[in-house]
Design a protein that fits this description.
The protein is mainly alpha-helical. It is rod-shaped.
């Protein structure tokens, strides 16, 4: 093999190595771009899941609070009714006391 053949082989090997490096850089760029897309999808999915979970939690809390409010309202209505019945019974006795007081004077 002559010197020019050796030099040509070296030059061909350098060109092949340069092409491999360029191909590897392109492939690395593609992998990075794909990884960025995937990470964006994962982040968006996590945000969507978080919003969905928050909505479910708020709906559950709202439903529970509504149930508790209805219970409190029901108990309050019962107490008001008891007070009104007690007042009705005592009103009659109070009227009798007043009438007796007026009549005895």
């Amino acid at each position: 093999m002559s010197l020019s053949d050796v030099l040509q082989s070296i030059k061909d090997a350098e060109n092949a190595a340069t092409e491999k490096v360029a191909g590897a850089k392109e492939q690395a760029s593609e992998i990075i771009a794909e990884a960025r897309k995937e990470s964006s999808k994962i982040i968006q999915s996590a945000q969507d899941d978080s919003v969905s979970s928050t909505v479910q939690t708020l709906d559950a809390a709202r439903s529970e609070a509504s149930g508790e409010a209805k219970g409190v309202q029901k108990e309050g209505t019962k107490e008001i009714s008891k007070i009104q019945k007690s007042a009705d019974k005592k009103r009659s006795a109070a009227v009798d006391v007043i009438i007796e007081s007026i009549m005895s004077n």
